[in-house]
Amino acid sequence: MKFKVYRYNPEKDAKPYMQDFDVELKSSDRMLLDAILRLKEQDDTLSLRKSCREGVCGSDGMNINGKNGLACITPLLGLKEPVELRPLPGLPVIRDLIVDMSQFFKQYHSVTPYLVNDTVAPEKERLQSPEDREELNGLYECILCACCSTSCPSFWWNPDKFVGPAGLLQAYRFIADTRDQATNARLDNLEDPYRLFRCHSIMNCVDVCPKGLNPSLAIGKIKEALVKRAV
Amino acid sequence: MVNRVLVGAHYGLRDWLMQRVTAVVMLVVTLVFAAFFLTHPSLQFEDWQGFFSYQAVRVLTLLFFLSLFLHAWVGVRDILMDYIQPVGIRLTLQVAVIVALVSYALWTVSILWRV
Predict the structure, then answer these.
(1) pLDDT in tens, chain B (115 residues)
(2) CB B101 within 8 A of CB B69
(3) How far apart are the C-alpha atoms of A184 and B10, rounded to whole Å?
(4) ipTM, interface predicted TM-score of the complex
(5) Closest residue, chain A, to B8 (C-alpha)
(6) Which of A66, A72, A115, A218 meets the CB 3.0–4.6 Å disulfide criterion with A172?
(7) What's the predicted TM-score (pTM) here?
(8) Buried b (16+ CB within 10 A) or exposed e, A36-60
(9) Dihedral (CA of B1, B2, B5, B6) sign
(10) Which residue on chain A is closest to B15 by alpha carbon?
């Protein structure tokens, strides 16, 4: 199988370049990550992040034939050859397919992604009705692989100011949580032409999310909450 | 001024909502005009002039154009926020857009009440 892989080692290379690979696959190689490990057998300087190899850790997000996704859950069958692999767009490249995710996590942290509740904690746990819990489905499953935020042009242009789809999905996850008491502060934090309203609903995030989540819908619900609060 | 990321201008919702509302206003006025065209298949200059002699039609048209300019302001400013990063150049361009849109608005009034 033929591959074209983005290579860049800032310590050695003046400029990034594309390296061609032609690799013999074994019958057990089903996912793209299996093939990339074969590439690494050919050239062990090829660098990438990986861990769980089953779409749970979110380490091996990359740009596969022009579309962001996780290598470990992208089937080799159906990939157009040569398979072009690039690092996630819009973030600084550390080396080859490894990007610096600092900016992404900074935005994630900026939405206070944890429950804020100042009342005395009950003996066992804070309870929710099944209906209230239902609202959190499709929000809590995010694995922070950054496929969505790095496919978003608004995040490319203003990564320091726009929270990005992943962060906004988490922001809504806590706005929607009935056990959270900081809803007003959360909405204040987002009511800004940059932090939330850079989103123009082009839905690249929904298109690429390897977990099938819908940040656009969550962003729409944050806007709805802001309107409800203001009108 | 140290180089810090500054956000929190708190006008995001207002402008976003304004763009939605102005879009609805433009849609409604467009439908009114479409109805006029459909009910006057062989339109003459006199029909057109007669139509615009109604104060309500003028106000409706003015409403359409004011909506258009407000809508355009939010849209163009969004583009400038995305693509023009130096604050000085962005402010200059934004002022230029405001001046242009306000001039268009005054020009619209002068045209509508001259017909």
Answers:
(1) 677 878 878 888 999 999 999 999 999 999 999 999 899 888 888 888 888 889 999 999 999 999 999 999 999 999 999 999 999 999 999 999 999 999 999 999 999 988 6
(2) yes
(3) 13
(4) 0.84
(5) A192
(6) A218
(7) 0.90
(8) bbbbbeeeeebebbbeebebebbbb
(9) negative
(10) A193
